[in-house]
Amino acid sequence: MIRYHVKHSKKSRRTLRFLGLFLFLFGVLVVWLFFSGNAAGHLIGAILGALIGLYGGYLFIHSFELDKYDIDYEFSEDSMTIKHVRGTTVYNYNEITDVTLVVPDNEMIYSLIQIKVKRSKFLIPFTYKKELCDRIYQLLTEKVTLRELTEEIEAAKKKAAEDAKNAEKESEN
Asked: Which of 21, 96, 138, 154 sits 20 to 30 Å CA-CA off 131?
């Protein structure tokens, strides 16, 4: 079993929330000024204010996502367990749809693994931990590739059986 902890800063979350809230309130103020008549001639400014307000709302809402909090990953032989702020989630390796290793120019400083499971994406950063990143990536690719190969073999067997049945029917005619 391989365990890995990803720590995220509480200050970053708070900064995103305050910045998002500030931008949202600023955008609402600009749009209110436009509709109240104080800045009636400045339609472009009102549109920009609305866009800034929408972006602020986006920042505020997305500061509550799971990847903004500390996450513990546990990789066992048959499943991947993710312990996050809202509880624990267990994914079988059969549920993983894609595993990608992002290697920068200087791979000794940091590496990233992106895991796609159903509709969720998990980006796992590794700073100065290249060996651990390689071990986890190797484990994930073995499990996911094994599943994909078994699915391809089963599909090929089904296709061969169907072809044999079709050939048998054609020879009878």
From this structure: 96
Q: What is the pLDDT along the chain (173 residues), one digit of tens a residue?
A: 889 998 888 999 999 999 999 999 999 999 998 888 876 678 888 899 999 999 999 999 999 988 888 999 999 888 889 999 889 989 888 888 888 888 777 766 888 899 998 888 888 888 888 888 888 998 888 888 777 777 788 888 888 888 888 888 877 76
DSSP 164: H
User: What tokens appear for 114 in the block?
Assistant: 């992106």
Instruction: Tally the C-alpha atoms within 13 A of residue 68's C-alpha that lie toward its C-beta.
Output: 15
Tell me how far apart the alpha carbons of residues 170 and 106 are, in angstroms, rounded to a whole number: 61
Beta bridge partners of 114: 100, 123
Q: Where are the alpha helices (DSSP H) in 37-129?
A: 43-62
Beta-carbon neighbour count of residue 11 at 10 Å? 8
Do residues 45 and 29 make contact, with C-beta atoms less than 8 angstroms apart? no
| Long-range contacts of residues 126-129, Cβ cutoff 8 Å, at least 24 apart | 126/4
Q: Which are the contacts of 109, defined by CB distance < 8 A and separation ≥ 6?
A: 127, 128
